[in-house]
Fold argininosuccinate lyase.
Amino acid sequence: LTGDLVTVLTVLKGLPSAYDKDLQEDKEPLFDAADTLELALPVAAGAVATARFRHDRMRAALDDAMLATDAADYLVARGVPFREAHHVIGRLVREAEQRGVALSALPLDILLAAHPACGSDILQVFDMDRSAAQRRVPGATAPGAVREQIIRARQCLGEH
């Protein structure tokens, strides 16, 4: 599918601006993509329908390093430029890796010493549920946003 997309985009890129009459070269990749999807979608639907999610394993696989951007955002919210915040958190991630501990397991004094903007509330950043819940824009990970996506998907499926 990616190859078909690249082929069509390459054809479109080669067209002069606002000229869209000469699209004979797009037919082969478009038909190929349709054929591929016709085979792949039932397989994907079957995989999703029979999937068994091991929530315990999923939670065990979570790693504080996934929240490094949240930690940088924490500093940005306190007036630190993102570039600087990124470097500060990068140093903390390396420190945690060298010690063989999770980022949230670093001693509080090390976290506080990383930057003057760090406060004792920085530990709240390392809560996976909180991280997901704070993203509330459409298409995001907050439970309400996910519910809204499910409702929209069901409405779309009901229309077709």
Summary: The chain is about 60% helix and 0% strand. The chain has three domains: 2-50, 64-126, 135-159. The first helix runs from residue 2 to 13. Residues 37 and 116 are 53 Å apart (CA to CA).
